[in-house]
Amino acid sequence: MKPKIWLSSPHMCGKEQEFISDAFDSNWIAPLGPNVSGFEKDLELYLSEGSHVAALSSGTAAIHLSLILLDVKSGDEVICQSFTFSASANPIVYQGATPIFIDSERESWNLCPEQLEIAIKDRISKGKKPKAIIAVHLYGMPYNVKKISKIAEIYNIPIVEDSAEALGSSVNCQNCGTFGEISILSFNGNKIITTSGGGALVSKNKDIKDKAIFLATQARDTDVSYLHSSIGYNYRMSNVVAGIGRGQMTVLDKFVAKRRANFEYYKKNLESINSLEFLNEPSNSNSNRWLSCVLTPNIETREALRLLLEKENIETRPLWKPMHQQPIFKKAPSYINGVSDDLFERGLCLPSGSNLSENELDKIISIIKSYF
Ligand SMILES: *Cc1c(COP(=O)(O)O)cnc(C)c1O
Question: What is the pLDDT of residues 112-126, one digit of tens each?
Answer without folding.
Answer: 999 999 999 999 999
